[in-house]
DNA sequence: TCCATATATGTAGTTAACTACGTAGTTTTA
DNA sequence: TAAAACTACGTAGTTAACTACATATATGGA
């Protein structure tokens, strides 16, 4: 199991992140199935957000979950098809569509609580190590927010040595 | 900048990983451009592997970089178009195509050394924190190799409480 | 008050990975 | 030694995110 990429260090980091994200998403799908639930991991951010905030516009949801708005729209379409959400025009601003969970959606969220608890434990086993993965992600995101990868590269370059 | 997903904990981890991978890949593209190099981050795993191993078949490359072979084939097509690699039939096994870097490819690899060094430093600034991102990824991957997310979920479920 | 600018939503097309399946050589085994 | 099983490569179609652009409504300033 020699693997050049695992040894090429940090340069292949985006490859490694993507691989890991893919694997977890796919296995997440199997877990929902095994509990007999008709739910997909990619829906989690939207549904969880609406569970907490109850009524939000498309762009507000996009901001909450950190996605571009067209991605959010396509998730909302799927959830509408599943009858887990519905939407109505905002009366005070005709441009906005306010999204809410349906009764079916709320029921499903309740049914998913033990599954989420189960997943959380399994994920903790995987991610809680000497270097905690969630904390590492949070710290890296915080750094990027202060100054991006490109900006840091430019600064290093201008500093002379590279 | 309230963000439900950042606070929803580990359940949205695959979303977070993907976001981070995307951001780093895109900024990586800008960095190559800023150095005047016609190179894309997604090509790195293949090119770096061929730089170290010089002649490999399609499936061997796929295994080295941890991708499915069709993904590798489409990367190889792009690299062939860029004239960075070429291939010839293996004489002892007619099924195999042996891939090598061209002279242009080798020259580019040399030209990229300082850029890779620069990127490595910038990435270290981002990822070397209290919880080191690369190490966290490695640890999580090791755990998954022992027993996957699904398998762990099943075991927790069977243990009774969930 | 009306025009310019900004915001909210939507559509179309792209990207970078994947799985499923097909074909052609190679190896094993009955 | 011929059939079965395996391996290598390739194609087609899918997925889950993205950017760029279009349209409709709202708002602020001259």
TrEMBL record, chains A, B:
Pfam families: Staph_reg_Sar_Rot. It comes from the Bacteria. Keywords: DNA-binding, Transcription, Transcription regulation. The keyword tRNA processing does not apply. The keyword Transcription regulation applies. Residues 10-142 form the HTH marR-type domain. GO terms for molecular function: DNA-binding transcription factor activity. GO terms for biological process: response to stress. This is MarR family protein. It comes from Chitinophaga terrae (ex Kim and Jung 2007).
